[in-house]
Amino acid sequence: MPRAVVLLSGGLDSTTALAVARSAGYQCHALTVRYGQHHAVELDAAARVAKALEAAEHRVVSVDLSTLAASALTTGGTIPKNRSLAEIGAPGDVPPTYVPARNTVLLSLALAWAETLEARDIYLGVNVLDASGYPDCRPEFVRAFESLAQVATRAGNIRVHAPLIELTKAQIIELGRSLGVDYAMTHSCYDPVGDRACGRCDACALRRKGFFEAGVPDPTRY
Which are the contacts of 189, defined by CB distance < 8 A and separation ≥ 6? Predict the structure, then answer.
């Protein structure tokens, strides 16, 4: 069985990416990064997901970006609330929840583990539709990192899979449900109250929209 490293945050998208990798026949090694995010409840969600989806291994590594990467998710600041869906992801809109170079760092860690495991495949759950305007969720970024991986490793021949990149949240949910994903175990909120989602941040708005458009009851605890 070929191995794949899957970046797993515990959110809706990364959970679906793990399910896709598993359905493709990979032995999945899940990697969660504690990067200094204030919404660390997602780490608990990642552990639940890794167990439920039978990851061969789940590792959590700490790389504190808060001293370098200014973001409402790491160094504080106002997390946008109650924005309209038209505002979220509008052209040129990069919200304060964007963490500079986060996906570059996370993919670099996944690449290091993949090379150690002699794995040739990395999965991540970024998507450019129904997203919050993050520049490192674009297809151009994924292609560029995959090109980097060929010259940054001994063997090369690394594939970076972003199977959700051009799907809406509704399509992602439909795909996950077809693969048996229980989204009640996932967490997406940027500003949770305890283990409950705030219901008002961009991540909550997009999650709600996805379940509504998919015609699926939203299992999130608000």
Answer: 39, 196, 197, 198, 199, 201, 203, 204, 220
